[in-house]
Structures are given as structure tokens and as C-alpha cells.
Write a structure and sequence with these properties.
InterPro entries: Chloroplast_ADK, DUF1995. By secondary structure, the chain is an alpha/beta fold. Helices cover 31% and strands 21% of the residues. It has a single domain, classed as Rossmann fold (3-Layer(aba) Sandwich), CATH 3.40.50. The protein contains 8 helices and 14 strands. The strands form 3 sheets. It has a 9-stranded mixed sheet with strand order 8-7-9-10-4-11-12-13-14, with helices on both faces.
């Protein structure tokens, strides 16, 4: 059998009048087709969106691929299990390699959050056209760097990130990958919070994928809008686009969007009048639960 140019699967020629032509009908496009099918797909797409943003003149771009086991929705990034740190850096390198492949003529500077990490990973990250530095260096970047990739800066590095960003020339780009600038606000002064918010406001989100408990995800890919996807009860394994936004919603607003969707999708006829509500966790408890799986590529996250 052969597929013709119109997407039709035709049987081989035959004299049998009952021979049939099997038509291939492609699946209709869905909003959730933008979601990645695997972790590798997410990182590759993040690199592509970042490269596109840089081509459009964006000087400061941010990428966040927030895995459930590395990130808590209320307090921020965490490394709760042994080996989480090493895995974080492996994924960061995968993103970097994908970005470099898209910009082969560019010189890259990789900036680690501290000297210890830079020294530990120096042997694994050395490559032609790539220079390594740490955020604590006197001069983390050079005027010869085309793209500076800052990996996982922590809350203590907010001021240093600001100095790095201000010190770059007009033809240099800064890409911040999975910043860990927020780790809860306990013990963090108002000035530090304002500094962090002002710093992040200067970045354009090139790619963002964040789990909403085990119910969906918050997604953005440059140059698109922020999108909230939640499980499609009528189509297992798929997700419905329930809201599009012009800016990143705060966590509390995101929870309200989820609660509203769950309430309206349940419908008035789903329970008898006067019936007691079913016992179990409420919407906020469900949504706030941190899980290791991320939507359609949950299995790949554990590899």
C-alpha cells in the first residue's frame, strides 16, 4: 500500500470490484499540540523559542522548565532527593547544546551560580566556542561573548545577576535558564524582593512550562501568550486550553482559574440537590500538590 499526496491509503491494483480504498484522515489540530511529548522535546523547543527571541532582538530571555521534583509551587525550587542537583545540570547542558546547535556561529559564555559548581562541571562542559565562568567572578562575561547563558542563579545572586545584565553590550544577549531566585520569602527583606522583581521584569519569557499539581500546566512559548491547560475529561491524556493571558498570572490567580474551570465543567446536574459534597481534598489541595509527572510526558521525567 502507498500513501498518495492527498493523504489517502490506496490498495494495490486489483480486478476485485469489492476492493476498497482506505483513506487516512489526519487527526485534527488541538490547542494542546504545543505541549511537549517528552522532556527532550521540551528542552529542544525551549532552545528553538529562545533562538527565535534572540533573532527578534530580545536581549534578555528567560527559560523555565519546572520539573515537579525540582520545584514547589508555593516556595520555589528545591533539590529534595539525592542526585537532583546532578540531574539539573545534565538537563541544563542539554538545553545549552540544543541552543548552540541553532546558533553555530555564536560564541557562548556559560555562567554558573558559584565557583564550586563551575569547578565541578568544567571538564564536562568544555567545548569549542564555549567559555565558562561563575557569577562570583570579577568579570563573568567578556565583550567577545555573543550569548551569555546564566544557569540556575540562586537568591543570594540577585544583585550579581543585575550587575551582569547591566554590564553587557547592546549586541550581547543574556539567557537565564531556570533561575532559582525565589526560595520562599521567609527571611528575605523587602528591598531584596523588589530587586528580584525589578530584575525579572526586564526579561522576556522565551519558554515556560510549569506543572499545576497533577491537573495541567502553565505554558508559554515565544512569541505566544501565557496559556493555562487543564486535563480534558473527555479525552484521556489530552489537555484543554482554559485561559490565555497577556502576562504571567500570580500563583493565587492561577489557582482561581483552576477552581473556576473545575466548578463550571462539573455542571449543575452532576449532583442531586441537597446532596452532601463528596469527601476528599478540595481544589486548592489538589492543585497545590507537587508531583513528579508533567502532563503528557510524565514517564520521561523519571528517567
Amino acid at each position: 500500500m502507498s500513501r498518495n499526496s492527498f493523504g489517502c491509503m490506496e490498495s494495490a491494483p486489483s480486478n476485485d470490484a469489492e476492493d476498497e480504498v482506505e483513506y487516512y484522515v489526519p487527526e485534527a489540530a488541538r490547542d494542546d499540540d504545543v505541549l511537549p511529548d517528552s522532556l527532550e522535546d521540551a528542552l529542544a523547543t525551549a532552545a528553538s523559542a529562545t533562538s527565535q527571541a534572540l533573532d527578534q532582538g530580545i536581549q534578555k530571555a528567560m527559560v523555565e522548565v519546572l520539573l515537579g521534583e525540582f520545584w514547589d509551587p508555593a516556595s520555589g525550587p528545591i533539590y529534595s532527593q539525592q542526585g537532583d542537583g546532578a540531574r539539573f545540570w545534565r538537563l541544563a547542558k542539554q538545553f545549552l547544546d540544543a541552543l548552540r546547535a541553532l546558533r553555530p556561529d555564536a560564541t557562548f559564555r556559560v555562567v554558573f551560580p558559584d565557583v564550586g559548581v563551575a569547578a565541578m562541571l568544567k571538564g564536562e562542559w568544555t567545548a569549542p566556542g564555549v567559555s565558562l565562568a561563575s557569577l562570583g567572578d570579577r568579570a563573568p562575561a567578556s565583550p567577545d561573548d555573543d550569548v551569555v547563558v546564566l544557569l540556575g542563579p540562586d537568591p543570594q545572586g540577585v544583585s550579581a545577576v543585575g550587575r551582569l545584565a547591566r554590564g553587557l553590550g547592546p549586541d550581547q544577549a543574556l539567557v537565564m535558564y531556570n533561575p532559582r531566585l525565589a526560595s520562599g520569602d521567609v527571611g528575605v527583606g523587602l528591598n531584596v524582593r523588589r530587586m528580584r522583581e525589578g530584575l525579572l521584569a526586564g526579561f522576556t519569557t522565551a519558554y515556560h512550562l510549569r506543572p499545576i499539581g497533577d491537573t495541567g500546566s502553565l505554558f508559554k512559548m515565544y512569541p505566544g501568550r501565557w496559556q493555562v491547560f487543564l486535563e480534558d475529561a473527555s479525552s484521556p491524556g489530552r489537555y484543554s486550553l482554559v485561559r490565555e493571558l497577556g502576562s504571567k498570572p500570580p500563583y493565587e490567580d492561577l489557582m482561581l482559574i483552576v477552581e473556576e474551570h473545575m466548578r463550571t465543567s462539573a455542571g449543575p446536574g452532576d449532583s442531586e440537590a441537597g446532596a452532601a459534597p463528596a469527601e476528599g481534598p478540595n481544589v486548592f489541595e489538589q492543585v497545590g500538590r507537587t508531583v513528579a509527572n508533567l502532563q503528557r510526558f510524565a514517564r520521561s521525567l523519571s528517567k
